[in-house]
Design a protein that fits this description.
The complex is a heterodimer of chains A (about 375) and B (about 400).
Chain A (H helix, E strand, L loop, with lengths): L3 E6 L7 E7 L5 E6 L5 E5 L3 E3 L9 E6 L13 E5 L2 H9 L12 H33 L3 H19 L12 H15 L9 E5 L6 E4 L3 E5 H6 L3 H17 L1 H12 L2 H6 L4 H13 L5 H17 L5 H13 L14 H10 L11 H8 L4
Helix pairs in contact in A: 2-7, 4-13, 6-10, 6-11, 11-12
Chain B lengths: L8 E6 L3 H17 L5 H15 E3 L2 E5 L3 H34 L5 H16 L2 H17 L1 E3 L2 E5 L3 H17 L5 H13 L2 E3 L2 E5 L11 H20 L3 H31 L1 E3 L3 E4 L4 H35 L8 H37 L2 E3 L20 H6 L6
The chains are: A alpha+beta (about 375), B alpha+beta (about 400).
Chain lengths: ~375, ~400
């Protein structure tokens, strides 16, 4: 094979050195002769790497040489540029590690450390620090401020449920509103409601009910339709009032505000849209912690007992809904205590005399509140 | 003595093709989706390797030596810092903002409330400027030409406070001092950039940039002139023509300024006191590329991706929905959305970015490149966070 003229850059200066390249006699190295000085050296084929991307049409390739050290690619700074041809074909065929990406020593350890550090720090932030700070900050909010936040949060959720329109979803049939008030008063008989509760029904088919800051509780039409008895509605309502009494919705608003953006930081721009969708979704199926859910359950059962409403609806409703729902768990189902646990909790309590949560007329009126 | 010789002129060229960049963007983009975004560090690295390699000065190409692994590590560290900062800032502003949410009763309270909303945005600015400088430093530290490293001094803090101050000044001047900001910030970076042991220097004057604002300013004047005339004469053809001309000139000015300002800055850069550059991109050519590329992308996207997506939507609407609601439907929709996004950005790279690179880089000339013969190698830069901050904040360049 004839020697091929190429350019050698020695990695010391930017000066181009004309060089002749050819296979060494034993075929294990690339022999380089510098034209200016006549210096000759052999580069073992195993040390050859591709320097930079081969772009079609450039007619040449750049070669680099493996050299362990500080370099990010573990290469000597020198480069050899050769025109494409018989010699470069020979190199491509015989250099065993031409495309190898050499990793600097300790890189994998550094990656493992950075990964562990990031995981621990983010988990601590999301599950301990932000909830803790939210608790402290939520306690500093005045009732007027909380009512205002509640209105804004409800406005946002209503906007989403109305498919991005300003439509007013609140159902306002006279008899239905009366029935709703009766239900609220019936639960208030327990004497356990210390915050004013603002209760309303929205005309939406989703089986859901949720509490927002400022004592706002919303039942969706789909939920009323799925319920078999007023006792079931009362049980879910008592659970939501439990969240209100514990101050969960406001803390949750702080937690969401504090965590905003962290998810999209992790996943980057590519899934930015996905993260936004997830966040919008999490407002609806807002997940309180498991302990908050259990406390709301305990509160609800005590409330039902004090108001002389049967706890049977409590277990039955959750059980039926869990069978019915394949996906999109409603708020009172997500991060839920197991249905079995709930049922046990509801049935193992001492039996007591109970009256229906609403009479037949009110129950019919409530179910027809959306017309 | 040597000054008597005319300087040599060496043309810069971009040799990449649409096919190569499209294939690369599509493959790396799909890999990024499949790996839940982890591959994006390698995707960016491979894209840079490609574009650097396709950019030549005379016959010598650039080389990008960054690695995906170091970017991932840098990102993980930056992520924690940013997450803590975001959490504290978000919670703090949410709590402070509450003091003002109860309906404002006078103008001062309205201003205070608005102030808080924007203060929240402003809180990220220092980080964004920091990330921009560090990203530029990393890119230069991983760029080589003829085996010699580029580099940038570690001076992000100085950049951050200057950028914040200049942003404030620009805002207070209602944008009139924008050329001062773009010149000073560019000069700050250029004056700290090196090729081997030779320093770059930004010469020229910031006031020289004003002439490139003329179309923009003329557009504004004509537009408001038309509106004022319309208020007096209650309409008429002349008003319509004036407003239309004004708006068109305004948009032309929006494209004209950054192109000509960048050309001016490039033409006033000096490397090692001896090597100069000229750049002469054509604004009309660039507008042509933007419009032509936009049309090409729309047509291709409609034919290859829009149609199947539309058919899929129709299937959902006409009864198929029962099998595809819930998480499965969400997953399928998300998948289609993400693949569409990757496809679209690959098209944009091939039909807009590639021709733009080809044109803009092709107008650059290097004067007196022989002087690089005496430029020596510089020490390796560890790359610090490998632009992890820019990746996390997504403020880095497209590639």
């Amino acid at each position: 094979m004839e020697p091929v003229e190429g350019s050698y850059f020695d990695g010391q200066t930017a000066r181009r050195h004309p060089a002749l390249a050819e296979p060494s006699p034993d075929g294990t190295a690339l022999r380089l002769t510098l034209v200016e000085t006549g210096d000759r050296f052999d580069l073992p084929l195993a040390s050859l790497r591709r320097g930079g991307e081969q772009v079609a049409g450039s007619g040449q390739i750049s070669l680099a040489f493996h050299a362990p050290g500080e370099d990010e690619q573990q290469r000597d700074p020198a480069r050899l540029v050769l025109p494409l041809g018989e010699l470069t074909d020979w190199i491509t065929a015989h250099a065993p590690a031409l495309h190898r990406r050499d990793v600097p020593r300790r890189t994998w350890i550094r990656l493992a450390k950075a990964g562990a550090f990031a995981t621990v720090a983010l988990c601590a932030l999301i599950f301990v620090i932000i909830p803790g700070l939210s608790r402290i900050l939520a306690d500093m909010v005045t009732p007027e401020q909380e009512a205002d936040i509640g209105r804004r949060v409800l406005g946002q959720i209503e906007y989403v449920l109305a498919h991005g329109t300003d439509k007013d979803l609140t159902c306002r049939s006279k008899a239905g509103q009366k029935a709703l008030e009766h239900l609220r008063d019936r639960l208030a008989e327990s004497g356990m409601v210390t915050t004013p509760i603002e209760l309303r029904v929205w005309d939406h088919s989703m089986i859901n009910a949720f509490a927002a800051p400022g004592g706002q509780v919303v039942l969706l039409r789909g939920f009323l339709e799925a319920a078999d008895s007023p006792d079931e509605v009362a049980a879910v309502l008592a659970h939501e009032i439990g969240h209100v009494e514990a101050g969960d919705p406001l803390r949750e608003a702080f937690r969401t505000a504090g965590s905003a953006g962290i998810l999209s930081l992790v996943f980057g721009d590519l899934t930015g849209g996905a993260a936004a969708a997830l966040v919008a979704d999490s407002v609806l199926s807002s997940t309180y912690s498991r302990s908050a859910e259990e406390q709301a359950d305990v509160f609800a059962l005590a409330m039902l007992r004090a108001a002389a409403i049967s706890p049977k609806g409590f277990a039955e409703f959750f059980e039926r809904v869990s069978r019915l729902e394949g996906a999109g768990l409603p708020e009172f189902m997500s991060s839920h205590p197991e249905t079995a646990t709930r049922r046990a909790r509801a049935t193992e309590a001492q039996p007591y005399d109970a009256n229906p949560a609403l009479d037949a007329g009110d129950w019919a009126a409530l179910r027809a509140i959306c017309g | 003595m040597t000054d008597l010789n005319p300087p040599s002129y060496t043309a810069v060229s971009y040799t990449g093709t649409k096919t190569e960049i499209f294939r690369l963007a599509l493959v790396t983009g799909l890999l990024s989706i499949v790996t839940l975004g982890i591959y994006r560090f390698w995707a960016k690295t491979r894209m840079r390797q490609h574009i650097w390699g396709a950019t030549r000065v005379g016959q010598d190409g650039f080389e990008y030596t960054g690695t995906g692994l170091e970017k991932l590590i840098g990102f993980l560290i930056a992520l924690v810092v940013l997450a803590v900062y975001l959490a504290v800032v978000n919670l703090g502003f949410f709590a402070l903002g509450l003091r003002f949410v109860s309906r404002p009763t006078n103008d001062a309270e309205v201003v205070a409330q608005l102030g808080f909303i924007y203060a929240n945005l402003f809180a990220l600015l220092p980080l964004i400027y920091f990330a921009q400088y560090r990203a530029m430093r990393y890119r230069l530290a991983r760029t080589r030409f003829r085996g010699i490293r580029f580099g940038m001094e570690s001076a992000a803090a100085g950049y951050v406070w200057r950028a914040l101050l200049l942003t404030l000044i620009t805002a207070l001047s209602l944008g009139l001092l924008y050329p001062l900001m773009s010149f000073r910030l560019d000069k700050y970076m250029t004056d700290r950039a090196w090729y081997g042991d030779a320093r770059f220097e930004q010469s020229g004057r910031w006031t020289a940039l004003y002439r490139y604002m003329i179309p923009f300013a003329a557009g504004v004047v004509v537009m408001f002139g038309g509106i004022a005339l319309g208020a007096i004469t209650k309409g008429g053809t002349l008003v319509t023509v004036l407003i239309f001309t004004g708006v068109a000139t305004f948009y032309f000015g929006l494209i004209y300024y950054p192109i000509r300002a960048a050309a001016y800055l490039t033409s006033h850069r000096v490397l090692g006191g001896q090597i100069r550059f000229t750049a002469n991109p054509s604004v009309w050519r660039i507008i042509g590329i933007l419009i032509g590329g936009g049309i090409a992308i729309t047509v291709i996207a409609l034919i290859t991706f829009g149609l199947p997506a539309w058919l899929f939507g129709q299937t959902l609407r006409t009864g198929g929905i029962s099998q595809l609601s819930g998480p499965l439907g969400f997953g399928v929709a998300l998948g289609i959305y993400l693949v569409g996004l990757v496809f679209f950005s690959a098209l944009a790279l091939a039909w807009i970015t590639q021709p733009l690179l080809c044109h803009v880089l092709g107008t650059i000339t290097v004067l007196n490149i022989e002087a690089t013969d005496h430029i020596h190698q510089r020490a390796a830069d560890k790359g610090a966070d490998a632009e992890g901050f820019a990746d996390a904040l997504d403020v880095g360049a497209a590639f």
